[in-house]
Structure formats: structure tokens, C-alpha cells
Specification:
The structure holds two protein chains of two kinds. By secondary structure, chain A is an all-beta fold. Chain A is 0% helix and 50% strand. Chain A has strands at 4-7, 10-13, 19-25, 31-38, 42-51, 54-57, 65-66, 76-78, 87-94, 104-105, 109-113. Chain B has no helices and eleven strands. The chains are: A mainly beta, B mainly beta. The interface between A and B is medium-sized, with 26 and 29 residues.
């Protein structure tokens, strides 16, 4: 089954404790990205990757890091989480770079930073 | 920067009626416009894509229009059902651009 998986689905952590949210897709997609979703603000892109070893900032990259060492995986790293990073996070992938392709989203990771 | 507005946060309609959702944008000339459905606690799911040179696209009970002069897309669900209740998101992408920009969504409730 074609899918994007994320782990963990729920995470409660404390300020400053480094964490990683994993993302994996099994569709051999070139393009992957991370979004956060907040009430009233919609989906905002954090980082994206057009292919292995190619990553770039989205609209709200501060406080986040990513890496793309393999085509299927695109982890999101919070080196020193803060309460304003409490949000619902989605990983997404699509076949190619252009906006003509549909995006497949993961199930989401709800992060709470206290 | 680009701005994407979806007509209202919430829309309630009676079962069997046609739901019409609006997506307006400014400061942008998208080549593609996509619509997604999102259920509570889940990731968005792709529904339809329409290109800038297409006026209308249909898929089963769904219809999307794209007016680049008005900078607006309309999303229609005909013969609506309670199972159509969800949040609907529009997303825009430029021709050579990599990124999709999302609206904040409209939460549709279909009342039996």
C-alpha cells in the first residue's frame, strides 16, 4: 500500500530536549516536505527536499532541521524544542518537484512542548 | 507574499444540497490549484487538481472551477451527504515552483 508514515504519532516533551520525528514513504517519490498546522494559520511549510541531499527552507524553518540521506526518509529534528513549537506536524511526499502532482500526507504527529 | 483565503471557517448545509466553497488568492499567479479533504486528526487527502488553462474539472459529485481573472476557485459538492463533512483545503502552486501554498480551510458540515 502506498503510504507516508510518521513516528511518533503523539509526543509530549519538555523545553530543550532534542527530538526527532521520522518520516518515510514507500512510493519512490523525489519530493518530500514537512508542514506544521496550527488553528487559524493552516498548513505552513517548514522544510522541503527535492531529492537526496537536497533540502531547502520553507516558510517557517526557524528551530527545525532536516536531512535527506535516503530517498525514502526525511526526518524532522528539533534541536531545542520550545513551547511555540507545540503543533500538529505533517510529512508529505509527491512524485516530482512540480505542483502538478498530488501530495500524499502522513497521519500527523501531535507534539506538545511544556 | 501570496495570500490565500477560503470563504469561511465553517459552512453548514442540508443533506442533498450543493455545497460551494470558495478559495481566493492575491499576489500570486498559480499554474495549478489543488483541493484536499482533511478529516479530524488525519492528514489531508488529495481530491482534484485544475490547471490555469482549465475552466472546470469534475470528478463524480465534485466540481472545481478556476477563474484566473477573478483569482478565485470554487469547489462544489453536489447531492451532499453527511459523509462529506470534513475540512476542505485549497492549495496553489506555480508552474516551475516546488511548493504548495495552502489556505486555512473551510469546515463543512452536512446536516442529515
Amino acid at each position: 500500500e502506498a503510504q507516508v508514515t510518521q513516528n511518533p504519532r503523539y509526543l509530549i516533551t519538555v523545553t530543550g530536549k532534542k527530538l526527532t520525528v521520522t518520516c518515510s514513504q514507500n512510493m519512490n517519490h523525489e519530493y518530500m516536505s514537512w508542514y506544521r498546522q496550527d488553528p487559524g494559520l493552516g498548513l505552513r511549510q517548514i522544510y522541503y527536499s527535492m531529492n537526496v541531499e537536497v533540502t531547502d527552507k520553507g516558510d517557517v524553518p526557524e528551530g527545525y532541521k532536516v536531512s535527506r540521506k535516503e530517498k525514502r526518509n526525511f526526518p524532522l529534528i528539533l534541536e531545542s524544542p520550545s513551547p511555540n513549537q507545540t503543533s500538529l506536524y505533517f510529512c508529505a511526499s509527491r512524485e516530482r518537484r512540480t505542483g502538478v502532482d498530488e501530495q500524499y500526507f502522513g497521519p500527523g504527529t501531535r507534539l506538545t512542548v511544556t | 507574499s501570496q495570500k490565500i483565503e477560503q470563504n469561511s471557517e465553517a459552512l453548514n448545509i442540508q443533506e442533498g444540497k450543493t455545497a460551494t466553497l470558495t478559495c481566493n488568492y492575491t499576489n500570486y499567479s498559480p499554474a495549478y490549484l489543488q483541493w484536499y479533504r482533511q478529516d479530524p486528526g488525519r492528514g489531508p487527502v488529495f481530491l482534484l487538481l485544475i490547471r490555469e488553462n482549465e475552466k472546470e474539472k469534475r470528478k463524480e459529485r465534485l466540481k472545481v472551477t478556476f477563474d484566473t481573472t477573478l483569482k478565485q476557485s470554487l469547489f462544489h459538492i453536489t447531492a451532499s451527504q453527511p459523509a462529506d463533512s470534513a475540512t476542505y483545503l485549497c492549495a496553489l502552486a506555480g508552474g516551475g515552483a516546488n511548493n504548495l501554498f495552502f489556505g486555512t480551510g473551510t469546515r463543512l458540515t452536512v446536516i442529515p
